[in-house]
Design goal:
- There is one protein chain.
- With 258 residues, this protein is an alpha+beta fold.
- The protein has three domains: 43 residues, no CATH class; 51 residues; 114 residues, no CATH class.
- 33% of the residues lie in helices and 22% in strands.
- The protein is built from nine helices and eleven strands.
- The strands form three sheets. Strands 4-7-6-5-11 form a five-stranded mixed sheet, covered by helices on one side. Strands 1-2-3 form a three-stranded antiparallel sheet. The chain has a three-stranded antiparallel sheet with strand order 8-9-10.
- The longest helix has 20 residues.
């Protein structure tokens, strides 16, 4: 049958005015070129990816039926910025669902360690991180008097009790400035209903009247990992017959097909 196909291609080459390029599943890394003089040439020519783009996990799962029509060797790859489905063993035909960080999560990543004045810090907590920070903690910080902070002496301080007698007397009615502040935020727009707790250090410099919020080591990485594990659970729940540790479950991977 292959010989007949090559003879057919050669005949096409005789009737064509210019070379033609053909691809066959038997030769995934080669192109078959037929020329006007009837010659047939095999050339190394990896085919480009056949790319599909979807917006929802259920659309990715729906493509399993398309894969079953050919090799049925599909895989899901959950990365930091996309979920990629490969539809066959060549990894060339793919469907991609982009993963976008929420504005709040990106704001937290950007502000880590950045210095803010009092007004800028309150704006960060109430606008950029809107809805993710405990209102009581924001109230404590809002009631800090910057004019008093400028009159104190000392190094970087963390709590109201350590800011000195002058400062403590002015903010004692609002409570202590917390050393640790928690941010409850979704990580990805594609799963905006799931929130993750990110613990952050809150640093106040009374001499410079500056504020910092800094996620504790490993907190950002952990939130990303937890969010990706939830995507895996969503895939498990939507793939017919998929159960933990069975053959279908082994096709859901973390990483990239590259």
């Amino acid at each position: 049958m292959l010989q007949q196909a090559l003879e057919y291609l050669a005949n096409l080459g005789h009737t064509a005015a210019s070379p033609n390029i053909h691809f066959f599943s038997q030769f995934p890394d080669q192109a078959v070129i037929t020329r006007p003089n009837g010659t047939v040439e095999f050339r190394e020519c990896p085919r480009p990816h056949l790319a599909h783009k979807v917006d929802l996990i259920r659309d990715l799962v729906a493509l399993i039926s398309l894969s079953e029509e050919t090799s049925g060797d599909w895989r899901f790859w959950i990365g930091e910025r996309a979920i990629i489905m490969t539809l066959d063993e060549t990894l060339r035909e793919r469907a991609t669902m982009a993963l976008d960080f929420t504005e709040q999560f990106e704001s937290l990543c950007r502000c880590a360690g950045k210095l803010y004045d009092h007004a800028g810090f309150i704006r960060l907590l109430t606008v950029d991180l809107h809805g993710t920070v405990d209102a009581a903690a924001v109230s404590v910080l809002r009631n800090v008097k910057v004019s008093v902070l400028n009159e104190t002496e000392g190094d970087v301080q963390k709590t109201a009790n350590s800011l000195g007698k002058r400062v403590a007397s002015r903010i004692s009615g609002a409570g202590d400035i917390p050393e640790i502040m928690t941010v409850e935020t979704p990580v990805y727009d594609q799963d905006a209903t799931s929130t993750f707790t990110i613990r952050c250090a809150l640093l106040v410099d009374p001499m410079a009247a500056t504020f910092q919020i800094r996620p504790l080591p490993g907190e950002i990485r952990l939130a990303k990992e937890q969010a990706r594990f939830l995507f895996r659970e969503q895939l498990r729940n939507q793939i017919p017959g998929c159960e933990p540790e069975n053959d279908l479950d082994q096709r859901i991977l973390f990483g990239s097909p590259e």
